[in-house]
Amino acid sequence: MSRAVRRPQERAGESSCSSGAPLLAPRKKISVMLMGNHSAGKSSFINWYVGEHIQRTGVAIETQGFTFVTSGRRRESLTGNATLHLYQHFQKLEEITGVSDYLSTEISTSRERSFGLVTFIDTPGLVDGDMKYEFDVERALLWLGDQVDLVFVFFDPMGQALCKRTLNIVERLSEENGEKMRFYLSKAD
Q: If DSSP codes are grouped into helix, strand and coil, which group holds residue 120?
């Protein structure tokens, strides 16, 4: 889907190009969704890239919602609707029952690497079995995968590298968004 400049008098979602795809206003930063099994290194990667300890890490399932990690002029944390207000192009997430309560944003002043050009979206660690999420995690991941510029998929080669839930979502995402996906075997701790 191409991103094109829309006319000022048009509102987001009202216009479309000849292919029927909606025209989106250009964004200043690329968006990268990090997904994968729990404890596969998603949050650790963000902390390393940013050069700060922003996201909690550990063996337990630390990330239970979606955390947008971006750069800004001052350190700040936002939750729920404030996140959707900041990222209006992700507003349709609130249509997924329960997900709004599990949205947050961490704004960092870091100038490491090219952090000023990227927004990371840290996602819940995926597991098989009886784990119940407070929202439809698969639907949310699939929708976000359609919206973001890149999808980084992390696998823990020492743990549940072949979690069925992760593999099912990856397979479905790759059908429409294969060119966006990058795969990483990672384990540093």
A: strand
**How many whole angstroms separate alpha carbon 167 and alpha carbon 24?**
30
Burial 15-27 (b: 16+ CB within 10 A, else e): eeeeeeeebbeee
Q: Is the pTM of this model over 0.90?
A: no
Higher pLDDT, 83 or 189: 83
CATH 3.40.50.300 fits 30-185, yes or no: yes
The single residue listed with the structure tokens 């099912």 is 168
Name the range with the highest mean pLDDT among 24-28, 148-152, 165-169.
148-152
Among all chains, which residue has been given the structure tokens 């927004």?
A: 119
**In contact, 2 and 21? CB cutoff 8 Å:** yes
Q: How far apart are CA 109 and CA 79, in angstroms?
A: 18
In tens, the pLDDT along 42-65 reads 888 999 999 999 887 765 555 578
